[in-house]
Amino acid sequence: MAIINISKTLFFLSFVLWAGCGGCGKNEKLEKAEPLFQKGLSLERDGQYSSAAEQYQLAIAAYPEYRDAFFQMGNLYEKMGLAEKARVEYTKVIELDPGFAQVYNNLGNVAGQLGELDAAITAYEKAVELDRSLASAHYNLGQAYVLKRDFSKAEMELKYAYELVPHDSKYALALGMLYATQQKLSDAMVYLQRSVTNDSTNAQAYYQLAMAYKNNKQYDEAAKFLEKYLTLITDFQEQNIIRGKIREINLLKAREKLANSQKRSTIIP
Predict the structure, then answer these.
(1) Rounded CA gap, 207 and 198, in Å?
(2) Which residue ranges form the domains of the chain, and what is each CATH number?
């Protein structure tokens, strides 16, 4: 009859139990941190930013590898206008998860707020490299290229964003404004019209559409869209400015009509 070595058996079992529960401590920490994180989210939604920050910090203290808590902390600092602090938090996120595309997008936003355009572009490029479906990163990269006046790259990125989310009025507006900047008025009007179709309350899109029609000498359409823009704004001073622009457009229309009639009258039959 074989004699079982009890001490070796117990050691083996304890090793198996320890190895098989390698993540127990991690899970326990996460379970403790998660309610704190969720409470922070709730406070942030209610606009209680300082209290939300305290909860995120408690969550991180409970679980120092809590990527989402660091990310949300950075996002909160962004909302509070604390760009440098936001960047510190986003850098910690990257240390924990270098493949997290969204954090590079946010890091690009922070760099842009700090006036570091090249750094913003680098961050956005990393975001789209990691996730080609991240429409907001393509959009932000396109807008950064607009600021660099690299319109070909801007068009490529803004089109990519629009094709990913064609129902987003903001993406169509950005493309329309890019084309308007380059005096590609036909293309501009197509995308600006799509923008107002997607969101009939997008005041900026109506204004840009009106200006595109004005520059294309389609004065009736220009006046119509300015009238619509007028219904969407509430600032009294701006309303007066827009009424002045409508009068200017009607004057241009009258002058063109007069010029055309004079041309016809000078034609000898």
Answers:
(1) 15
(2) 167-257 (1.25.40.10)
Residue with tokens 């009025």: 169
Q: Tell me the CA end-to-end span of the chain in Å, nearest whole number.
A: 130
pLDDT of residue 22: 47
* pLDDT tens-digit map of 231-247: 999 999 999 999 999 99
Length of the chain: 269
Alpha helices of the chain — where are they, by DSSP H?
6-20, 24-45, 49-62, 67-79, 83-96, 101-113, 117-130, 135-147, 151-164, 169-181, 185-198, 203-215, 219-232, 236-266
Calpha distance 221→241 (Å, rounded): 18
Question: What is the distance, to the nearest Å, from the Cα of residue 250 to the centroid of all Cα atoms in its chain?
Answer: 37
Q: Please name which of 35, 39, 61 lies closest in space to residue 51, comparing C-alpha atoms.
A: 39
- Give the alpha-carbon dihedral of 183, 185, 190, 191, to 10 degrees: 20
Average pLDDT rounded to a whole number, residues 136-154: 98
If pLDDT is split at 50, 70 and 90, which confidence band does 11 have?
very low
CA distance 157 to 153: 6
Report whether 196 contacts 202 (CB < 8 A): yes
204-229 burial string, b = 16+ CB within 10 Å, else e?
Answer: bbbbbbbbbbbeeebbebbbbbbebb
Note whether 79 and 52 are within 8 A (CB): no
Amino acid identity of residue 179, one-letter, is Y
Burial class (CB in 10 A: 0-12, 13-18, 19+), 120: buried
